[in-house]
Amino acid sequence: MTSPSTPPPAGAGGPRPVLEAHGIRKRFPGVLALDGVSLRLFPGEVHALMGENGAGKSTLIKVLTGVHPADGGTVLVDGRPHAFTDPLQAQRAGISTVYQEVNLCPNLSVAENILIGREPRRFGLVRWSETRRRAAELLTELELGLDVTRPLGAHSLAVQQLVAIVRAVDVSAKVLVLDEPTSSLDREEVAQLFGLVRRLRDRGVAILFVTHFLDQVFDLCDRVTVLRGGRLEGEYPIAELTPVTLVQRMIGGELATLDQLSGRAHGQGAERAAGEPFLRARRLTRAGSIEPYDLDIHAGEVIGLAGLLGSGRTEAARLLFGADGADAGEVSIEGRRAPLRSPRHAIARGIAFCSENRKSEGLVGELTVRENIVLALQAARGWTRPLTRAKQDELARHWIEALDIRPADPEAQVRHLSGGNQQKVLLARWLLTEPRLLILDEPTRGIDIGAKAEIQKLVARLADEGTAVLFISAELEEVLRLSHRIAVLRDHRMVATLANDGTVTPERLLTTIATGTDS
Amino acid sequence: MSTGTADTAARRARPFPAVSPRTRTRVPLLVTAGLLVVMFGVGSVRYEGFLSAQVVLNLLIDNGFLLVVAVGATFVILTGGIDLSIGSMVALSTMLTAWLVQSHGWPLAAVIPLVLLTGAASGALMGWIIHTFEIQPFIVTLAGMFLARGLCYTISTESITIDDPATTGAAQTRLYGPGGLFVSIPVLIALAVLVTAFVVLHHTRFGRNVYALGGNESSARLMGLPTGATKVAVYGVSGLCSALGGLLLTLYTLSGYALHAMGMELDAIAATVIGGTLLTGGSGFVLGTALGVLVLGMIQTLVNFQGTLSSWWTRIVIGALLLVFIVLQRLLGGRRSTAR
Amino acid sequence: MTPQPATSGAAGGIGRRTAGHRLLWPALVLLALLLGNLAFHHDFFSVRVRDGHLYGSLVDILRFGAPLVLVALGMTLVIATRGIDLSVGSTVAIAGALACGHLAGAARPGSVAATLTAVGLALGVALVLGLANGLLVSGLGVQPIVATLILMVAGRGVAQLITDGQIVTVTSAPYKMIGGGYWLSLPFAVLLAAVLVALTSFVTRRSALGMLIESVGGNPTASRLVGIRAGGLLVLVYVFSALCAAVAGLMISSNVSSADGNNAGLWIELDAILAVVVGGTALTGGRFSLGGTVLGALVIQTLSTTVYTLGVPPETTLVFKAFVVIVVCLVQSPVFRAKAVRRRAATPRPPTTAGATPQEQEARA
């Protein structure tokens, strides 16, 4: 993979990148997470790193900051090669990272969080007044006014984020990696954070900024590196991109081929969307995860949720399953109000939800395929009304055959199955409860082509049989092929609902995702 | 490889509770202090001879060893760990001391450093196992508990009484102050331990690392703090304190016995919790632990003064207090529901 | 499609073999201990019939091991949910104290009615204690180790309060039956424990209880999303644990015809945890094995007997238990296993990740 090189940005601090990565390769069991990825970071620039699920952003950052050692390639800091094996080495070389989960200690004061491990001491004892003075000084320098004696946990997440940055910069001020720092901040807090980032940039710090928010990239960044499927897609000055072209590069796929899609869902949208919806959500919202949205889902209808990773797709769906509690808004099912306070409530009303995190939120790895398949049905019945072993075996055999789960052994531990087969087990679990509404969050991610096609076919068949389906996917092709209507999410807002009646071209969908307006 | 909902879920969980962390640590402490004052007040009103400075000093004389081991327990609990081996380590120390002094005629001055070293080393060893193999502290210190108690019995199943003059002399020394008030040498040692622990926890990097470790271990590691060394050291401190507590108990009872200090780890943990330290770690004061020890001692004293109450009421009241404080900690918003 | 039945058969065989291996190692350890004893005492395996009752070392192990089996039984379910119950020792003491206290004060302590009332009283109070633990854990979300610590501390005081600090002695033939009696020439305690184990096994495996408990312990997040009511299950396992402990308490006090609030069931919680862990149920929750727990409890009991027959002070059993704890925990620790694998880097087999099979775990021990 060759990197389309662009000249260093005009006005950058120096001709040489402060951080340079060449041909980074990283393999995890079964996946080549990074395949010859390169990255250049110049002093005094804010550089965005973008990519969809599985693009390799997180892995690249982990390699650069020493969390994972790379399997191949070189990392140069100030032109000297380094092979970091733990984050402290990276820190000493001048690369500090601020994660989305603030990695500070909420129980300690702001001053301590900034200086712990480096407190001024006399005779082995910490000089508290000096510590506070220095911390206050650092904050003032960056135009932040905070009471340094208060415990960090008493401050908002945004302020904690700022404190984390101040600490990172004070530890080593060459390269600052910000890993999705703005995911849970509101507009004002983001502005405050950006103010700080700009001040640091002006002092010559190189900032690598990972985010899902398009606006923020155009607002703040000078250049952008786009990854796709573990490979380098390209490195561009931000001025040369528009939101649409950026999203195109992230999502990839030739638009021409997308165009030729046979639209099997086209045309039926209108008739399926007629009548009383099965589920109607109004002004449903949860602070920090999704702005108020409206959604109607009819029986037999496939609604696609499209949007970039982190746009609020999953968050919107979780509210409909009661996996997270909504702060406001209401849901009615078949015309009757139905507060979905917990998954139990939702399941009782015929809603099923396949999480995108199969391992952590879906399957119980130690249990067998059979047990995982019957789990939802059994949970609904309660433990006192067991399914007999014969019934369990029958159900398991039936679904193993129906979905072609391999190995076809109901007593195999589910954790030993491949991703696609695990996904099928999860589907089987919910299908045998005969749900009225099936929510599928990225059901085809990370599974092989064959399994993917089978799952797509299954979704279409379920809808034909009258099941309502909410289908979340990062792949526009899939969404366009399967959905009768498509709800587009962007920056935690539902920005449009498009009837997939043949007029929705991939370009139109892409533009909506990228700009937030359907034009 | 990319962010998933695991992160999202963590983000969704509110990172800070409704009550500010400072209130959270102060409320239990104030409750404990108030409790102490009330108990002393009630005692003074109800019982003759209760309202005297010597009663307070006697609290320290009778509970000096508990104060020392509770200080050790505080270090461990502040990191979010737990040490169940405390009582057994205390017993082993009394046994070792009595055996070496009485049966082998070693001078006390030589025995003391040996016992302290044994305690610190075994604590550190447990800490090393906990850290290196990522095994739950509770099960590792459980093994330590079995081992130490079992070793007591290999020394002797009987109680060993000490009549070595130097030891009895040290034990019986009374240090008189103004007004005929007196304390024993162990009291001074216990207070010295308390002050040292305070200084270490609040004014040294090691102490601050202890708090950081309890606040968020992975953060502490990413901030470049020596989490492993801190963990090993913390259990070492607890072992050291247990050994010292054992020495003080030996002086107090002038004997070594395998059945000494049964369940003392529970008293130490209770004192720490009642003193306002969160069992999830990261928050608390060693001076609060001292208050907690005084509360436990005061309960004992009140039960004694009452005369009609039996000793088991002490345990019941301690249990009730523990319940109240643990529920209080939860309601004031403990951050994490599970700690390893 | 044709080759699939064959594949499935083979895979099923592997599955069953693995399940067999879960019990294999505790069984082998037990066997080794027993054979070791045989080497010292050649009549160790001999079982005699005297007065129509079975006697012998093996019978003694079963008889004295019965209370531990019961406590460990309850503990297994608690541990399967990722919990722990430290309060069982106190519950043992309280149950014994309540029953003996009631019988001592009864007009006709020898009557079956009085005995049944005593048993009912003990079980009723245990139910309340278990409920308290369960609600603290599931309702308030207190860590199990902390929640049950409260009762562990206070419980012994309560037991002594009930017995007034005395050792309460009772003479009641029906009560004596529970822990010290014989039925059909077999010790009644052993029969009782066997029945309860069988019943628990039946209920957990025939109802969906076992599966749901394993699901909650194995993956709490997924269990919530699949609609399992974890709260109720948690309360249930703590109540069950308390009831098991209470029955064990009745056995212990019945066997010696007295209740000792201070010493009855001392450290039985630790022995029970040990039995569960030795039996192959991980402290991290999930899959549990009742059969393994029974074997584990018998291993612990045989260990005590062995130390006794060796003629060393019986209290030094603790030292042996300490080593068992350390070894078992090291073997179960993924980090330790990873290190062991790394040390044997020369072996061609690629290092398995967290999912090393039980055989491999044990082999490395």
UniProtKB/TrEMBL annotation, chain A:
Q: Outline the extent of the ABC transporter domain.
A: 19-254, 273-516
- Statement: the UniProt record of this protein carries the keyword Transport: yes
The keyword Ion transport belongs to this UniProt entry's keyword annotation: no
Classification of source organism: Bacteria, Bacillati, Actinomycetota, Actinomycetes, Kitasatosporales
Question: What SMART domains has UniProt attached to this entry?
Answer: AAA
What is this protein identified as?
Sugar ABC transporter ATP-binding protein
Entries under PANTHER family matching the protein: CARBOHYDRATE TRANSPORT ATP-BINDING PROTEIN MG119-RELATED, GALACTOFURANOSE TRANSPORTER ATP-BINDING PROTEIN YTFR
A Pfam family this protein belongs to? Answer: ABC_tran
Keyword list (alphabetical) reads: ATP-binding, Nucleotide-binding, Repeat, Transport
Q: Which residues form the signal peptide?
A: none
User: InterPro entries per the record?
Assistant: AAA+_ATPase, ABC_carbohydrate_import_ATPase, ABC_transporter-like_ATP-bd, ABC_transporter-like_CS, P-loop_NTPase
Question: A GO molecular-function term, please?
Answer: ATP binding
Check the record and name the CDD domains matching this protein.
ABC_Carb_Monos_I (cd03216), ABC_Carb_Monos_II (cd03215)
From TrEMBL, chain B:
Check the record and name the InterPro entries matching this protein: ABC_transp_permease
One GO term of the cellular component aspect?
plasma membrane
Q: Which GO molecular function annotation, any one, does this entry have?
A: transmembrane transporter activity
Q: How does it sit in the membrane?
A: Multi-pass membrane protein
Where mainly located?
membrane
Xref: Pfam families:
BPD_transp_2
Q: Which UniProt keywords apply?
A: Cell membrane, Membrane, Transmembrane, Transmembrane helix
- Residues spanning the membrane: 27-47, 59-78, 108-129, 135-155, 175-201, 232-254, 266-299, 311-332
Q: Where in the cell is it found?
A: Cell membrane
Q: What is this protein called?
A: ABC transporter permease
UniProtKB/TrEMBL annotation, chain C:
Compartments, record wording: Cell membrane
Question: Which sequence ranges are marked TM in the entry?
Answer: 23-41, 61-79, 86-106, 112-132, 144-162, 182-203, 233-252, 264-283, 290-312, 318-336
Which keywords does the record carry?
Cell membrane, Membrane, Transmembrane, Transmembrane helix
Q: Does the keyword Metal-binding apply?
A: no
Residues of the region (Disordered) are: 342-365
Q: How is this protein situated with respect to the membrane?
A: Multi-pass membrane protein
The record's Gene Ontology cellular component field reads: plasma membrane
Give the source's domain of life in one word.
Answer: Bacteria
Q: Which Pfam families match?
A: BPD_transp_2 (PF02653)
Q: Molecular function (GO) terms listed?
A: transmembrane transporter activity
Q: Does the keyword Cytoplasm apply?
A: no
Matching PANTHER family: ABC TRANSPORTER PERMEASE PROTEIN YPHD-RELATED-RELATED, GALACTOFURANOSE TRANSPORTER PERMEASE PROTEIN YTFT
Q: What is this protein called?
A: Sugar ABC transporter permease
**Organism, as annotated:** Streptomyces katrae
